[in-house]
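I'll show a sample.
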Amino acid sequence: MAEQALRRRKKSPLSSDSAWAYVFVAPQMLGVAVFVLIPVCFAFYLSLCNWNLVSAPQFIGLDNFRKVLNNKIFWQVLRNTGYFALLYIPSVAVVSLSLAILLNKAFPGVVAVRTITYLPHLTCSVAACMVWAMLYQSDGLINSVLGVFGIIGPKWLTTTKWAMPAVVIVNVWLNMGHHMLLYLAGLKGINPTYYEAARIDGANSWQLFGHVTLPMLTPTIFFTLCTSLINSLQEFNSVYMLTQGGPSRATQTMVYKVYTIAFQDLQFGRSATWALLLFVVILAVTFLQFRMQKYWVNYDV
């Protein structure tokens, strides 16, 4: 009898342990359903409709996708987004990894320096962009400092050549502390015996970095590359605050275009189409990254 009762208890999905598990998981699942699943499904439905927020949605099938994919602006904005990612990802990787290597050493005040380096990541991006907009002015601090060295500073935010690099610089400054912390944790996790063995074999500092540090740091590099790529393809705040997508659409990114089509043009169906196409791009490049990791990521087992 006891065995039968125990068997029934194991089979029952509402046993005491299972019930409590459902209780604890329910709020999270409800949040995912309300803020992720339902909006995604609604966006997919809107992409098949023409809706201006006033009248009822009109089902038009795949017409939005045909119009967007045949629009030259879509490909220009997609190139802008890729250009931003191409500038931002290696820049933030090099800066943050260099900082992590420098701050991985013990010296007086290293904790304070690490804290100061991380502080930009805690700064409100909107407030930071307002300050950077003043720094980028023709008579701002950056051009004034360049003038001391006899360099004529460019018009950072009003020329197609320098607007996107200016946006990238702000994003690197905002996120370098976060990536530095990740790289620093990865450096701390490298087994010191690898360095000892390499030094015994006569390796110098550059050889230690190329043959020990980088290979052992590839899992952290892979994680930061994935998150950086996903975040860069969704860049919005700095573009909105610094350039409003200008000049001449030079800094319009996919998410910024999704915003303008929806809340300026009131074409919510078209905006949902842009958002879904961006989702496809992010999904494709993320899948490619995970497929390629086996060729260069080394896990210390």
In short: The mean pLDDT is 91. The radius of gyration is 25 Å. The longest strand covers residues 49-50.
